[in-house]
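User: Assemble these into one structure.

Assistant: Restating your components, then the assembled model:
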Amino acid sequence: MTDVAASPPAAGAPSQGQGLHTSDAARKRLKARYASEARFKFFGIAAVLTAAFFLVLLLSTIVGQAIPAFNQHYVTIPVDLSQESLDPNNEGEAVLRRVDYDAVVRNGLRSLFPYVESRGDRRTLGGLVSSGSAVRIRQEVLDDPDATIGQTSFAVPLDDVADLYFKGQVSEERFVETTGEASPTGTEGTIQILSTANDFRDLLADVKDFLGEQADEVERELASRERSLERAEIDIVSYRDRMPEEGSDRREFFEDQVQILERGINGLNANIRDLTAELADLRARSTAAGADEVLTTELPSILVEINGGVVKASSINATAVEGEVIVPLTTTAAASGGDWSIREVVLPERNRKLDDRSLIYLDQLAADERVERQFNMIFFSSGASREAELAGIWGAVVGSFFTMVVTLSLAFPLGVAAAIYLEEFAPKNRLTQLIEVNINNLAAVPSIVFGLLGLAVFLNTFGLPRSAPLVGGMVLALMTLPTIIIASRAALRAVPPSIREGALGVGASKLQTVLHHVLPLAMPGILTGTIIGMAQALGETAPLLMIGMVAFIVDIPATPVDPSTVLPVQIFMWADFPEVLFRQKTSAAILVLLAFLVTMNALAVILRKRFERRW
Amino acid sequence: MFWLLFLALLLVFAASLYIGAQRSRQVAGPNTHVLHSRPSYHGGYLAIMATVPALGLLIIWSIAQGPIIDGMVVGQFSDEFEALSLPAREAFLRDARAIAFGGIVSFTDELKEAAAQIYQNLYRISTIAMTVLMALFVVVGFRRGYSSIEPKRRTRHFVERAVMIVLIACSVVAIFTTVGIVLSLIFESIRFFTMIPIHNFLFGLHWSPQSAFAGAGEVVDANPEVFGAIPLIAGTLFITFIAMLVAGPVGLFAAIYLSDYASNTVRAVAKPVLEVLAGVPTVVYGFFAALTVAPFIRNSGEGLGLDVSSESALAAGLVMGIMIIPFVSSLSDDVISAVPQSLRDGSLALGSTKSETIRRVVLPAALPGIVSAMILAISRAIGETMIVVMAAGLAANLTINPLEAVTTVTVQIVTLLVGDQEFDSAKTLAAFALGLLLFCVTLTLNFIALRVVQKYREQYD
């Protein structure tokens, strides 16, 4: 290991300037040792950086997703909440309860879009605002009839997809500069718009490119299908080869397998035929330069805004589009370049939740300055909901609060009392040893096992209510008990014996010594441990799933025995929903949870820093 | 009612504290020093005498009255009950109780109304009887305590003994918890093993309890062939293995770097980073795994032409590994820091480099502790639930391809017990058998970790 000893300097060093290292081999060894030193250190740094990288990745993912959820878009619609229409005879609440508020919302929306006439379009229109809008208006009317009746407009939350549209998360969009003069052939129905310049050429090229990409995708799929086909054929051959050698029951199994494979091959063949045809079609369309292209829902949407109206293109060539008028045009007069615009919504209509029609309606609402971005109060004030835009965490926060109150009021006294006994009074005997081993073991039992205990003992044996914060709190109390006991014992142990001796010396009994002198001095440490234990309990999910706190509960719980859920379980449930807004709200709920945890831990640190004494 | 009476007792308690103290001052006259115990202990003595017997009565009565009254109602309706099956009887009683005391009633009929009437009467009688008896206890206890207050009475000893009993009772809760866990797991597992032979459970290769029954809701003998736990155990170990591949080296190297290389400023930044990583709730890791890591792995795998499940074992294992990094690093850090500086100094003085010192001197000295830390980390990974519930699959595949979905013991416990369940079916009982398995495995691992440290640790100073 040491080159110093191996190379005595007196043995006639070959030349100056080589220091202690006499031979090339020694220098090489040294170099290798330094290299390995550097490598080792690098691994250490890499490990720390890896951990830091994961933390940053985790937090940035969640923060990035959560931020949009803290805002929400409202649309102000005209409503008829006059006394005559709601409650003509002034009969009060009983009548106000029965008013059809859905119709109020519906009529308000329709009055903004007089040209929307067909049933389907009206349904699309109604889908733009949250389905809870009517309930909100009703609630407001009932809560404060004097202020609400007579209002002519009301801000209602937008539907989740519409909300996302205003947050720019539905699709990428592109606006194309127009140069030519465009002349529409009509104001309603299906019309053509002809431009004097090649205004649509770039869009057409885009569409062709898109078709090309689709063709590539189909080709890849085709290739994979062909691979599966080959594999299946090989399998069949191998089964057939092995069949004669096997016993009768195995042979039956093989025959079954072969049959399954053959069926699969038939399906694959049909599939391959379809894909081949599709591929040929797509290729032809994408390469036929300049030809007209029919815009299906699988292609980007092209919307032309001209003369105060909007046309959705259904087919396109370099100088003209044909399409359906969605917002009627005012005139058929020609519009000069720059006065009309073309807009491309890149994501194909079939792949998004918001169709072109809704998108155009929403644009109109925005153009009328009816859409407003607000801080998302619903998220912080309401309970769970199936509608993403109406879902909030308040119910879960209240549930968590009750659970924590129960946990704290059980675990803290129990834990401190146990710690006092074990640290100050317990004789060294089998019972106390058993208790100590038990506590250390309980600290390492997986949390889900505590959930099983809660289910079997609290729910099934004692018959306590399911989904109640009371039971959740009890389970979590048992789980945090070891943490609190261990921390409290450490805090009690840190109080120097001189304190105890002093108290005993002036005539206090042992219990008085502990309760009057030792415990107050150990309190900061005990509280620190308790807060850390509570923070663990606040983030715990698994045991609460076992006792039914995963139920869907809309109402805000009022007592610890009401069914409710807690913040981490709410996160777990929302994480399962497919809607984008739910995913964002999940992230936002995580941020709220983390904020609570950070606050608690900061409190623990402050307590430790300010009150903990070193003796 | 329980809480009302409890509150009343609390009031009596507070009042007796005061009255007892006053009484002791009164009997002592002007010379309070003649009292053996200070007045507050006399107060405590009186309070205990007055309320504890009544409190005991309250608790025992409240627990006992439910079953007893149920029995009396059943006795009243024994003829009608002949015809009913056990679940129907329970439903009947439940509905009757709900009619009597408010609650969700499935449907009512005359018989239930009658039963509800009896329930109400019996409960009223019971409550009145209990209240009267409690009042009696309080009065008798109070009078005995009050009249026995005298200067020489050693009430401090009495009160301190009572407090000590409370303290001991609190520390025994830990034992009761363990006993509760073990008993509930064993009890339900035994019921499970009467339906499914234990060897089928432990050595079976096929797990699909959802297909255990022929008809929905009908009590049919469960098919023992579908309760083989081997795929679950294999899946659990596989995910744990992946997690340890991440957490082992990263955690250990982070611990080494932080204890032997890092400057104070680096440590001041890196330690909180690891602590925050440790404080993140597991459900957040699960969300991260399911929404970010799993799709990333699938997309990059598909980019390479691989067939990747969206619930791949790799994603769950990787994220679980991230979760365990701080666990490994903090435990290893403690152990490495505990190696005395003199050992390092000696090695450095012989001319070895820092890394040589760590590899050849510090790590061997810390090895038992590090091994124990790794075992504890494995135990933690095996018991971890939320990450795998959210990111690992449900299908019990027996595979060693990290890109396929596997399932774990904890995932199956959750899927079996969340949602509607009848408590008697083999399906729900299977969860308890799995829980027992999990409990035994983690307990054994913890025990081994403890033994490794005890047996092989060298005491250096």
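The CA atoms of residues 126 and 315 of chain B lie 59 Å apart.
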